[in-house]
Design goal:
The complex is a heterodimer of chains A (97) and B (463). Chain A is mainly beta and 97 residues long. Chain A has one domain: 2Fe-2S iron-sulphur cluster binding domain, sarcosine oxidase, alpha subunit, N-terminal domain (Ubiquitin-like (UB roll), Roll). Helix content of chain A is 6%, strand content 32%. The radius of gyration of chain A is 13 Å and the shape is globular. In chain A, 45% of the residues are buried. Chain B has 3 domains: 187 residues, FAD/NAD(P)-binding domain (3-Layer(bba) Sandwich); 138 residues, FAD/NAD(P)-binding domain; 68 residues, Orthogonal Bundle (Arc Repressor Mutant, subunit A). Helices cover 38% and strands 23% of the residues of chain B. In chain B, strands 1, 2, 3, 4, 5, 6 and 20 form a 7-stranded mixed sheet that branches. A 5-stranded parallel sheet of chain B has the order 8-16-10-11-12. With 463 residues, chain B is an alpha/beta fold. In chain B, helix 7 links the parallel strand 10 and strand 11. The chains are: A mainly beta (97), B alpha/beta (463). Chains A and B meet through strand 1, strand 5 and strand 7 of A and strand 8, helix 6 and strand 9 of B. Bound molecules: flavin-adenine dinucleotide (FAD) and FE2/S2 (inorganic) cluster (FES).
Chain lengths: 97, 463
């Protein structure tokens, strides 16, 4: 959905759902996902629709992902770090009858 | 500049935009022990997002981002050179009336105490509820602009810009300068006649008008197709955006798009000030809530002040002046200078701040949000988190819901992770419209801390 105007000066490799993704140093996780071809961060808990970063300023919470085992991190506020493990969040399985 | 120490804090500043940075630099010069907290990794706030990286590594991008952006270099440099402490990546999830702050960084929550607090949390974009606005591929204009500033990224496929307001034209001009082809710019509304009476004051306020006209001219020169008087917008697609449907002048057309950037102006970010709670009022001109403050930024709670766009939209230059004004007042309140010295120090900032604010009535009148976006049709989701439609809000009103908090408990609107940041204004407007009452009477959601998500582990770590 987005492309880089310049090659990043320093590359940082993270994993997204286990697959490696090369990002630029200083980019947020949300930015890296938006430049990756698949910007989806999570499924909406209500309907399961895919959601991607919307505001890029910490307001909408549509960019929530799991980072290094911690769920519900706002990926537009977290910078990539080498080896960081990012997981897209699936809709929680409904419980009850 | 130093890291946050656990020593005593005279002034805790929340937000490292122009207001917070100018306040911190000035207060530190006056000998106050200042700590600045901001949830981003680098200073600059919304307008100067990524400025240090651009200055250090991507100098060529200054040509794309423009002079107004470059002005942030000196504000950030002065802050870095000051004695103010800086906590990046640090969200403030609570401010108590006794001036204790709850902070969270890297999954660790903590509390700090300060003698005074300055809230400088800036603005957020007004939500733009249209059919399909939850699809991947639909973003706010400021989001696309933030990617350009912080990461040097531009839209990769066909991009459509829709809405109104200075920021939309600024984004269009920046994308054009970066060599991006814009498929269309769809303008929802501009009210030249209503704005005209405010024009003389705006002309005295600075070069706002010239800047704006320059941006629009650059966009036109680049041959960007512009549609005026847009009455309906729809984002189409299944798993992601495929096209934008637009009605203007009685004609409906479909424009293929990979990215739709929406904008309806910016509104004060009052999440933190509402959670304290400070006293707020409805601004009819800006159609948003703002805390009630005096010219020094003092709120109704002793020792807690507010400066910059979170006190009402005034723009980046006004924000920096307001930050300095609040710093002089902090020094007075803490006994470092007397009232006469404060008045002398603050005189030029007060004059400049008032001058910049004189541009606002013109801009507010010229670019009001479109009525159909403020009070959307029944089928439009207003709460993105819980997917509650405007129709469900109206149903809740019909069932006796008289205010946002009741509607929230009937429909779950505002109960998701964004805590109403994306729906509060719309829900209040829809209720007001349904009941035929002014929004000021309807009020807004009660906001409860923590205003940033904390895990159970983070809360436990506080014990
Ligand atoms: C997305 C966006 C883009 C904009 N771009 C421009 C532009 O290019 N040009 C222009 O003239 N105006 C722009 N504006 C308008 C903007 O409001 C400026 O006028 C200016 O940035 C306001 O300065 P400020 O210091 O009041 O707040 P801001 O610059 O918004 O700074 C506030 C800071 O506080 C932080 N913050 C907020 N809440 C918390 C919390 N709870 N905990 C920790 N930190 C917090 C934010 O992350 C931010 O860094 C933009 C507004 C938005 C919303
Ligand atoms: S993109 Fe909106 S909170 Fe991250």
């Amino acid at each position: 959905m987005f492309r880089r105007l310049h090659e990043p000066e320093a590359a940082v490799t993270i994993t997204v759902d286990g697959a490696p993704l090369v990002a630029g140093a200083g980019e947020t996780v949300a930015a890296a996902l938006l430049a990756s071809g698949n910007p989806v961060c999570r499924q909406s808990p209500a309907s399961g629709q895919p959601r991607a970063p919307f505001c890029m300023m910490g307001a909408c919470f549509d960019c929530l992902v799991e980072i290094d085992g911690v769920p519900n991190r706002q990926s537009c506020l977290v910078e990539v770090r080498p080896g960081m493990a990012v997981r897209r969040q699936a809709r929680p399985t409904p419980v009850g009858p | 500049m130093s890291a946050i120490n656990s020593g005593e804090i005279d002034l805790a500043v929340v937000g490292a935009g122009p207001a917070g940075l100018a306040a911190a630099t000035t207060a530190a010069e006056l000998g106050l022990a200042v700590s600045v907290f901001d949830e981003n990794a680098t200073p600059g706030g919304q307008i100067y997002r990524g400025i240090e990286a651009v200055a250090a590594k991507r100098g060529a991008d200054f040509a794309v981002l423009g002079d107004a952006y470059r002005a942030g270099e000196s504000i950030v440099r002065d802050f870095r050179a000051s004695k103010a402490a800086y906590a990046p990546n640090t969200g403030v999830w609570l401010v108590q009336k006794d001036r204790q702050l709850g902070i969270v960084r890297d999954g660790k929550a903590g509390m700090v105490a300060a003698r005074r607090v300055l809230i400088a949390t800036g603005a957020q974009e007004r939500p733009v509820p249209i059919p399909g606005w939850t699809l991947p591929g639909v973003m706010l204009a400021g989001a696309a602009q933030g990617l350009l500033k912080s990461a040097g990224m531009v839209p990769a496929g066909p991009v459509v810009l829709a809405g109104n307001g200075p920021l939309l034209y600024q984004l269009a001009a920046q994308l054009v300068a970066a060599g991006v082809k814009i498929a269309a710019l769809l303008e929802t509304r501009s009210e030249r006649a209503a704005a005209l009476p405010h024009l003389p004051a705006a002309l005295m306020a600075g070069n706002y008008l010239a800047k704006g006209l320059g941006l629009i001219a650059a966009v036109k020169r680049a041959g960007v197709p512009i549609r005026r008087g847009v009455t309906e917008l729809r984002a189409l697609g299944c798993e992601r955006l495929e096209a934008v449907e637009v009605a203007a002048g009685g004609r409906t057309e479909r424009i293929d798009a990979a990215l739709l950037c929406l904008h309806q102006g910016v509104v004060a970010n009052v999440q933190l000030s509402l959670a304290i709670p400070l006293k707020h009022e409805w601004s009819a001109a800006q159609r948003c809530w703002r805390p009630v403050v005096d010219q020094w930024g003092n709120s109704d709670v002793e020792g807690i002040a507010v400066a910059g766009d979170c006190a009402g939209i005034g723009g980046a230059e006004a924000a920096a002046h307001a930050g300095r004004i609040a710093a002089f007042e902090a020094a007075r309140a803490l006994g470092r200078i007397d009232a006469a010295a404060r008045d002398t120090h603050a005189a030029s900032d007060l004059a400049a701040w008032r001058r910049h604010l004189r541009a606002r009535p013109f801009l507010d009148a010229l670019y009001p949000p479109a009525q159909g976006l403020v009070v959307p049709a029944d089928d439009v989701p207003v709460c993105r988190c819980e997917e509650v439609t405007a129709g469900q809000v109206r149903d809740a009103v019909r069932q006796g819901g008289t205010g946002p908090n009741q509607v929230k408990s009937f429909t779950r609107s505002g109960m998701g992770p964004c805590q109403g940041r994306m729906c509060a204004l719309t829900v209040s407007e829809v209720i007001a419209d349904a009941l035929g009452k002014p929004v000021a009477e309807i009020g807004t959601y009660r906001i409860r801390p923590p205003i940033k998500p904390l895990t159970v582990g983070e809360l436990a770590a506080l014990e």
